[in-house]
Amino acid sequence: MINGSKYLTDTIIDLPPSGIRRFFDLASGMEGVISLGVGEPDFVTPWHIREACFYSLERGYTMYTSNQGMIELREEIANYLNRWQNLCYDPEHEILVTVGVSEAVDLALRVLCRPGDEVLIPEPSYVSYVPCAVLAGGTPVVLDTMAEDEFRLTPEELASKITPRSKVLILPYPNNPTGGIMGRDHLQDLVDIIIKHDLIVISDEIYGELTYDGNHVSIATLPGMAERAIVMNGFSKAFAMTGWRIGYACGNRDIIAAMNKIHQYTMLCAPIMGQVAAIEALRHGEPEMRRMVEDYDYRRRLIFKGLKDIGLPSFEPRGAFYVFPSISVTGMSSVEFSERLLNEEKVAVVPGDAFGRSGEGFVRCCYASSVDHIEKALEKIGAFVARHKP
Amino acid sequence: MSLERRILELLERDARYTPQRMAAMLGEEESRIAEEIARLEKERIILGHNAVINWEKIGDDGVTAMVDVKVTPEREVGFDAIANRICRFPEVRAVYLMSGLYDLSVIVQGKDLKEISTFISQKLATLHQVQSTTTHFVLKRYKQDGFIFDEKESDRRLVVSP
């Protein structure tokens, strides 16, 4: 057998594997684990959405769609963003349906990055941004965010990392893994810098609907930002549709057209079953979606208070379905804490440093889990912390 | 949504929720929740706390029937007097006033077919306001009070994901 590795490019060889991967292997080999380590809803896709998909299959919807996505879906997305965020996108030219936001991020970075262009990426954040920037030929520049700022990107941090090569800013709010959000005022503080330095913003708003005690604000709604922001969202989190892999990107028509050019050669189109389901989600799924969000809100309060009582404090997360407590009281690193918690109590959380260096000293706990489950996990984490407090 | 409504929705979903747990979920004081529940019980807004049980699984072969009852309403009290009278029988699990071809839908439970037919022929049908009854026996249950009787779906998610 030939040695496959010798054919690989330096880029792919140098690309580190996801920090989550190792932990996944560890946890999935174990029986009876209570997991707060997932990154997706515990709800199954609402029945009426699944049912709409069955019906479409019965009627023979099994073919390719337009590269950009079904026009009915793009129209529904335009309507939805208009009634929810008061954003206006032309479904013909300014919306692209993708295979999850993951593909949209990849496409945007590939069309925007010239070799050496810098992509500004706040951390802690989702694990894909840095690798995607590298694969696109860009240079990732990490922006550190801090617990004392509730992990918001501050204008000071942004300004301090700007160079003549700065090109793209990724804004991942509401944030995975911290649960932090950026309100209107906080976003406004960034706008001047963004415009002054002619940056394009990739705004990953996949957790936008999962905003508590207030409404999500898309940066595209701020004056001057609609043309500079590529708004990305999808159905995975709010509509509990992770496995359907349907996302979308909205923004400047030249950039969307360029993204579609790569998309048509590499993906052709997003799967039609998922697109049909997504149409149903936008036409009739909002009440059920709101019910799910309300449910996350209950559990958010429960776990936030529970962790505080145990002695693992965090700021109050206002978005997504994660809480990101500090574990400094135990004197352990994130990885050590997570591995020992898994081995000793069979509770899985994700070490914060998997999401970037500024996540060190924290762990991500997902509360997309039943109340019973969360309480059991809290009990076990409580026992663990009590045992290991110096 | 009001606190009252939130408490009721949570308890309707799972009556085991303690005031302590609900206090954490709703961001309220535990004593406030306990007081609200006590008030709701006193005002009979909360009528009880039943478990939903699949008796078949422990080999219980009890029988349930849905009985369509036509009755003669009475002056001043309409259907209420007869409906309340039917409610008193312990065999009766539920009574609803219906629109359509009959008046009352009465759900009756018994240990076997004979027990139910005896109840209907001797107790229910003989009430003087009752004109007729049509009895439908339940053959199989699929869903009750929001619970599907099939095996619970397991969590199919990966243990850890980004």
**Radius of gyration of CA atoms of chain A, rounded to a whole number:** 21 Å
CA gyration radius of chain B, whole angstroms: 21 Å
Task: Name the chain pair whose interface involves the most residues.
Answer: A-B, 29 and 16 residues
SSE class of chain A: alpha/beta
- What percentage of amino acids of chain A are in beta strands? 5-15%
Cα distance spanning the termini of chain A: 54 Å
Morphology of chain B: extended
Helix content of chain A: 40-55%
Based on the structure, what is the oligomeric state of the protein chains? heterodimer
Largest sheet of chain A: 7 strands, mixed
Uncertain parts of chain A: none
Strand fraction of chain B: 15-25%
Query: Using DSSP, what is the number of strands of chain B?
Result: 6
Q: What are the SSEs and their pairings?
A:
The complex is a heterodimer of chains A (390) and B (162).
Chain A: H1 10-14, H2 19-28, E1 34-35, H3 47-58, H4 71-85, E2 95-98, H5 100-112, E3 118-123, H6 129-135, E4 139-144, H7 155-161, E5 166-171, H8 184-196, E6 200-204, E7 229-234, E8 247-250, H9 253-266, H10 272-284, H11 286-310, E9 322-323, H12 334-345, E10 347-348, E11 350-351, E12 363-366, H13 371-388
Parallel strand pairs in A: 1-10, 3-4, 3-5, 5-6, 6-7
Antiparallel strand pairs in A: 2-8, 7-8, 9-12, 11-12
Chain B: H1 3-13, H2 19-26, H3 30-42, E1 63-71, H4 80-87, E2 92-97, E3 104-110, H5 113-124, E4 130-137, E5 143-144, E6 147-148
Antiparallel strand pairs in B: 1-3, 1-4, 2-3, 5-6
Helix pairs in contact in B: 2-3
Could you list some keywords that capture this structure?
heterodimer; A: 390 residues; alpha/beta; Aspartate Aminotransferase, domain 1; Aspartate Aminotransferase, domain 2; 2 domains; seven-stranded mixed beta sheet; three-stranded antiparallel beta sheet; 12 strands; 42% helix; 13% strand; B: 162 residues; alpha+beta; two-stranded antiparallel ribbon; 5 helices; 32% helix; 21% strand; extended
